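Appendix B. Raw example, untouched.
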Amino acid sequence: MAEGRPMPRLFIIRHGETEWSLNGRHTGLSDIPLTERGVEQVKKIAPHLIGEGLLIDPRNLCTVFVSPRQRARKTFDLLFEHIGGFPKHVLTEEVGEWNYGDYEGLTSAEIKKINPTWKIWDDGCPGGESVEAMENRVDGVIKQVREHHKQYKEGEVDTRDVVIVAHGHFNRVLISRWINFSLCLGTHFNVEPASVAILGYNHNSLKEPALNGLNLSVVFT
């Protein structure tokens, strides 16, 4: 293992505001665009967040995983357009939002009228993804990220950081699973539109995953 290198990090970014996120509607596969305010949210944080010598330095990036939904793709474009080029990135359903199935487009209050005891963290979504399916998908993404980090720590590559541009529930599940907790812990994490979280490691050890920062974009707004 290469000595003296900074520890690698995973940055997870939620897309900016949409009409449905503003209204509390569960937005999984529906391809909802950013609102004007959502665009401005991302534009405002981008020059403070991404660039040479900043928190997310493109020179340090192994890769970026981006959800195929337009709200995530537009967020990715807005984040990096000011630096005059886009880093290596992959559009993949692996980082898509929880598939809400029969509850797509409904608010929590509307869902409670159908199923008064429903909790996504315990019950998943009928016609969509179960808790087990979501956990397995997120665990697969984490495995890929940690492989990038392992290659960096072993001196096989020089780039150390990974970025994921995704969604609210996906990011909350990812935080929970990264630190080796059950998926349901995600209910305790607040992930705002256009928010940034940092996942890393303690004690210079890839065996000690940690949450380093949450909702960092508030310092830029």
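End of appendix B.
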